[in-house]
Amino acid sequence: MILLAFILLALSNICYVISQLNLHGKLRWSNQKKPYNFFGEKSHIRKYKWHDGDPEVRIRAPKNLYYKLIGSDYVEKWFTSTWLTVNFTDVYHLTQSMSYIFLSLGVSILSGVSFIWIWPGLLIVNFLSYKILER
Predict the structure, then answer these.
(1) 35, 53, 73, 116: least buried by Cβ within 10 Å?
(2) Can you tell me the distance from the alpha carbon of 130 to that of 50, in angstroms, rounded to the nearest whole number?
(3) Quick check: helix, strand or coil at residue 45?
(4) Is the Cβ–Cβ distance between 47 and 81 less than 8 Å?
(5) Is 32 exposed, middle or buried (0-12, 13-18, 19+ CB in 10 A)?
(6) Rounded CA separation 5/1 (Å)
(7) Backbone φ, ψ for residue 29 (5° rounding)
(8) Are the C-beta atoms of 129 and 110 separated by less than 8 Å?
């Protein structure tokens, strides 16, 4: 079981590295000619609805309770694409999600604490760290 935990931790790190390479435009699979595709440097804006198919022109979100609660300035490409299902919009968010899942599974195996507690705990720590440290 310890070997499995270390394999999961290694997979978590690999996913993290992929997400960071994508974020900094250095991912081997990114296509410079198509920056808005799934692996592109600007793929993070795929979660928003585009005006007339132009990714540089996103549609401003209406001033309603839903968009205020989710904290999005732009209309979602589909319902929940900026928060719950964001991991299906681009490689950065997919590998970030996979990294958290693999990390939680590895820690769960090593600690004996259920994944059901580790994963939400990790997400809460991540959320709080982000909120405290953001500009």
Answers:
(1) 53
(2) 27
(3) helix
(4) yes
(5) exposed
(6) 6
(7) -85, -5
(8) no
| Contact criterion met (CB below 8 Å) for 5 and 109 | yes
pTM higher than 0.90 for the full model? no
User: Residue 7 and residue 73: Cα distance in Å, rounded?
Assistant: 39
Rg of the chain in Å (alpha carbons): 17
Q: How confident is the model at residue 120 (pLDDT cuts 50, 70, 90)?
A: very high
Of 92, 58, 88, whose CA–CA distance to 76 is shortest? 58
Q: Which helix (H) or strand (E) holds 51?
A: strand 50-51
Which token pair is 134? 């953001």
Q: pLDDT-based confidence at 56, cuts 50/70/90?
A: confident
Distances (CA, A) of 95 to 10, 18, 19, 101, 114: 13, 7, 6, 10, 22
